[in-house]
Amino acid sequence: MIFFLLISATVAAQKVELITLNQNIKDKKGFIKSLTLIDNRNDKTIGSVTDKDEKAEIKFADVDLKSHFEKWFKEANDNVGNTDIVIMLENLKAYDEQDENKTFPYAKAKIKISGFLKRNDKYYFITRFDNVIVCNPKTVSHPQKYLAQQISDIISEFIKITYSGSVSGSYIPENQINNYDEYLIKNNKALTNPVLENGVYTSFKTFYNQQPNLDYSVEKNKKGKVVRLIKNQLSTSFSEMYCYVENGVAYKLTPVGFDEMKKNEKGFYIHTSRVNLFSEAKTGGIMIGALAGGVVGALIGAAVDSGSNGANGAVNGIGFKSTQESDVYIDSLNGTYIFEK
User: Fold this and answer.
1) What is the distance between the terminal CA atoms of the chain, rounded to a whole angstrom?
2) How buried is 59 (Cβ within 10 angstroms: 0-12 exposed, 13-18 middle, 19+ buried)?
3) What is the pLDDT of residues 223-255, one digit of tens each?
4) β-bridge partners, 260
5) For a FRET experiment, which of 29, 41, 141, 241 has its CA 20 to 30 Å from that of 106?
6) Looking at residue 319, what DSSP letter applies?
7) b/e per residue 175-186 (b: at least 16 CB within 10 A)
8) C-alpha to C-alpha distance for 172 and 183, rounded to whole angstroms
9) Each residue of 173-196: pLDDT tens digit?
């Protein structure tokens, strides 16, 4: 009996960190009439991370998430607009993960959240955030507090992104909203066409539509390395390029050079690391936004900032910029980087 009482006391004493959603999500332009949450998580339990040899569980402060989101919106807005926004929470997990060649595990949180405009029974995709937040145990004393705050910041900033985001792609019928990715992906010609069009692409949108810009070309040195971007016979900045395709193979522009874009059943990806792709913004924050059609996306969390590198897609992530290399996917709908580790 004493043994079971001790076990019960230990379980009861487990640390719990609450995700509080209390930031200001006012629609300053007054476009939005309502906000609805679709919680599509298969498992509503977020999970636990290790804090000084103890487990700390991360939870939402309000169990009824749908009601909380809608109340949160109403308290911040006057409902004077004419646009209905739908936020879909697709995945949210916290966990410890031991990366390859690392001496200690990292606390991480995987979050996937999407935004839609709704008219009658039709949905229009706006954008989504699909990534893993990495906590560096060398600099963060309580990883559960760090991750809970990051999750809260991401959700609130993402909601504000959807207020002014433009729709992309065709509409999604209401009965297909839970399969929106498969429904829309058929419009991505870069994935569905058997062969990629050769040429220079100045944005993710042009790559998506397989429309290379004929005003641009690349120039190589004797070793076959691309050294210049040419526009109408004049050298121009690499920042105007998203990628180029040669002999049916795509090469993605990154801060450390060009990486081959390989493809499998999940889409296009490059093998790289956060430290190779991400750079500090001038304000000290880290930019995570991305873009469809060269429009710079919004900034997330504590690292709110804007940027002008939307054309090349070299957008930054959040959390610790690990040197861990992995297959980094390119979101098939908006061109953002998706880290799975």
Assistant:
1) 43
2) middle
3) 889 999 999 999 999 989 999 999 999 999 888
4) 251
5) 41
6) B
7) eebeebeebbee
8) 7
9) 999 999 999 999 999 999 999 999
